[in-house]
Amino acid sequence: MGFQTPRSGSGYTGIATYYSSANGREYISQQLSSPLVNGVNYYLEFYVSLSDTSSHATDGLGAYISVNPTDNGDGFNLPYIPQIRQPDGIPVTSKTTWTKISSFYTATGGESYVTIGNFYPDSTTTIDTVPATGNFWIAYYYIDDVLLIPDSLVNVKAIDSVSDAKFSVYPNPSSGLFQISSTEEFIGVMMIYDLKGQLMMEKVVNEKASFDLGYFNSGVYFYHFNDGLNSRYGKLIISK
Q1: Which pLDDT score, from 0 to 100, does residue 162 have?
Q2: Quick one: pLDDT at residue 57?
Q3: Contacts of 94 (CB under 8 A, 6+ apart)
Q4: DSSP secondary-structure letter at 215?
Q5: Residue ranges in the chain assigned as alpha helix (H)
Q6: Which of 208, 202, 210 is nearest to 226 (CA)?
Q7: Residue 240 in contact with residue 223, Cβ under 8 Å?
Q8: What is the pLDDT of residue 219?
Q9: Paired residues of 129 in beta bridges
């Protein structure tokens, strides 16, 4: 369907939100690592980019959070109302950048699955024609960086932070050993959180320190560094 540089990591997936068959749809779905908790506010985001060969762009992209897995057996739009979706009437048309779709959600308890796609029929989907590199009568979107976290972690995650040339943590992803690199001297506190917002590690570090998280499970974590003058945030990926 074309090429896009992953927003992070080494890959992404893709789905059709519209094609020549009436109401034809594709979806991606994932079981959560643990069910959502009743009354807790969560933040969900994912990024999309229209494929090079797509001749059409649509609105309607959204995420449906459910207790049970959705049935995607017939290839047509699923009869659910997504709790998170892009604004009505504004198709995502960029083929060169990643567009974020995000919102907050208050759990009713027990939700264990997230399904992403266009849940609306053609009759209520805004469909635009766009320049394409092929003859595919389709709207096909790459999907990357799906994230669902308690809203207490929103200020820590810093997914959209501008790259800081003065401070970095590398290699990332890592099997667990991370190194701090900075052009400035400092002594501060490095705090590591898991996806539930739990503080997993707190350590005093300097501008050349390393820290070993090899005893953590593989997954996504967030760091918050503070030296009394500056706070820096970021995402860490442990892959074993």
Answers
A1: 41
A2: 96
A3: 49, 50
A4: T
A5: 154-157
A6: 202
A7: no
A8: 86
A9: 56
- What does residue 157 show for φ and ψ, rounded to 5 degrees? -65, -40
Prior bond to 173 cis, omega within 30? yes
Q: Could you say which residues of the chain have pLDDT below 70?
A: 72-73, 155-165
Q: Which residue shows structure tokens 């890592």?
A: 174
* Cα(26)–Cα(77) distance, integer angstroms: 8
What is the 8-class DSSP label of residue 195?
Answer: T
Residue 97: which residues within 8 A CB-CB, separation 6 or more?
A: 49
**Whether the Cβ atoms of residue 113 and residue 70 lie closer than 8 Å to each other:** yes
Q: CA dist 145 to 40, 75, 116, Å?
A: 22, 24, 12
Chain centroid, CA 186 distance in Å: 32
pTM recorded for the entire structure: 0.72
E strands, 51-176, are 56-58, 61-66, 84-85, 99-106, 113-118, 127-129, 138-150, 167-170
DSSP 38: T
CA dist 43 and 169 (Å) reads 25
Q: Are 223 and 234 in contact (CB under 8 A)?
A: yes
Which tokens go with 121?
């029929």
Per-residue confidence (pLDDT) for residue 155, from 0 to 100? 64
Q: What is the pLDDT of residue 161?
A: 45
Count how many Cα atoms sit within 13 Å of the Cα of residue 186 in the half-sphere of its side chain: 21
**Tokens 């207790």 sit at which residue?**
67
List, as one string, the DSSP characters of 156-184.
HH-TTPPP-TTEEEESSSBSSEEEEEESS
| Residue the block writes with tokens 């996806």 | 195
Q: Report, in angstroms and rounded to the nearest whole number, the Rg of the chain calculated over CA atoms.
A: 20
